Amino acid sequence: MLASPALTGAHSFAASVPGSLSIPLPSVPAPLPTPARRAVLSVVAKVKVPTPQDDRIARHVRLRKKVSGTTERPRLSVFRSNKHLYAQVIDDTKQCTLASASTMHKSLSKELEYSAGPTIAFDVRFAGGSTKDW
To answer: What is the similarity comment for this entry (predicted)?
Structure first.
């Protein structure tokens, strides 16, 4: 039997083995062919880490599965950016916004100092709603 240079080193040698004996050789996994290797690497390259925006959207979707606003008890939606605050009172059964307030309005931003809570509560009461459930 002739041993391969990969297993023995640089030199090959001949050895005879009786027919009744078998010598187990270590199994070396075959390298992936080039197209398969490219396919594996392309899948690995497509794996992406979620961004903070993706995390925010996932939280929003998870919450919206559980929460919906009704006419008797509307949903309060608040979005806070680095610069402004936006609040809406939403009736999901009619798919309409009952009231909204934002610090984008010049008078509100100076008056409320990034707090639109009292203004949106006033708007809801003015529209005929109730704020006792908040």
So the answer is: Belongs to the universal ribosomal protein uL18 family.
Low-confidence ranges of the chain (pLDDT < 50): 1, 8
What are the residue boundaries of the structural domains of the chain, listed by start? Answer: 74-134
As given in the structure block, the two tokens for residue 71 are 């006419």
End-to-end Cα separation, the chain, in angstroms: 86
For 40-53, the pLDDT digits (tens) are: 777 766 777 889 99
Report the C-alpha gap between 53 and 44 in whole angstroms: 22
- Could you report the per-residue pLDDT of 55-71, keeping only the tens digit for each? 999 999 999 899 888 88
Of the candidates 76, 60, 64, the one whose C-alpha atom is nearest the C-alpha of residue 129 is: 76
Say how many residues make up the chain: 134
CATH topology for 74-134 is Nucleotidyltransferase; domain 5 (3.30.420)
Spell out the residues 6+ positions from residue 35 whose beta carbon is closer than 8 angstroms to its own.
Answer: none
